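All the exercises in this workshop are built on plain-text protein records. Sequence and backbone structure share a record, each on its own labelled line. The structure tokens are whole numbers drawn from a learned vocabulary of backbone shapes. The record below serves as our worked example for the rest of this section.
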Amino acid sequence: MFEKIPVYELHVKPTYAVCLPQRSTENRVKSIKQIQNEKNLEQNDNAGVISAKASKRLTNAVNWLVASAKSKSVFDKKTGKTFNFKINFITLTLPTLGHNVSDHHFKAVMLHAFINNCRYKYGMQNFVWKVEAQANGNIHAHFTTDVYIPWQSLRRMWNKILTKNGIIDIYHRKHKDLSFDQYYRLYATTSGKSADALRKAYDYGVSTNWQDPNTTDVHAVHKVKDVGAYLAKYMSKSDADRRKISGRLWSCSYNLSDSNKLVIEMSHPDDFEYMQPLMNDAVKYKEIQHVSALTRRVFTVGEIFFYKLKDWGTILNGKLLEAFNKHRWEIRTGVDVQALRAVIKAIVPDPPHLILDTFFPDPQDLNYQLECPF
């Protein structure tokens, strides 16, 4: 009789990895806590606050975006200079109050239209968004993607969506008859702008007949040392003194979601080569323990390893790096290359290698063409 070999799963994230014994789904009984968590998800009962688990998923999504993004050279026609671009961080706002735009409409209609426009015009595949309330109660969205969008085009795109939803008309009616003194009194205390800045904004509003409000902001992140940590912290923050947004608070494209996991199954002795880079003293390690509700005994159920994005390609290498780079490449391209190669081989049993490798290259041949370390 053969001895059953234990199977382990290594769940790899951009900044940590978890090693657990593979669990069988046969005869598994859900705990009361699991059942309650599922009910909360069904009811979308987040009370306007991102939970610790959701915050972790959001952080992972942002880190996968940063890890898979490709550095690009972008030419700025206005300045005549070329700069490097990898990730943007955009804020989409509403220019006025009294619009009757619900949280659901903002997300399901307006933000949805923005995403579709970015996909169509700029080929965007990967993104993360989060909504929250401003101090005035207006809902606004933070949005990050790896596609460069000129700020002028971004503003035109979002304002066109605002026009279609009647927001620009409300903004126009509110401002069209204002003198500068009235405009100044209206915004001097709330905008935080100087008198000169308010004068400039007023003159621009008059020149455009109040049809082109400043509703978008592109934050500079190219000088931030750890972009992933910065964006994740900013997007997962919660302002307790502001109104709670109803419904979903954040989302991301499928490739960045927890549904698209990097899980390495380890059943053969050779598979444990994936674990070797994690045994480095520079990688922090912690046991995952469970306390039995009946006996109060403590069981070690797994291990968790902590590292940083910049450790990939230096401390983290070998087969683990190959698996990580393959996942990054598939996120970047939106293509499961191995599945495509299998389909091609099924249709053409012996396809010419030149054609196969040109149009559907093996990810293992591309691993070290990705930028690493970060």
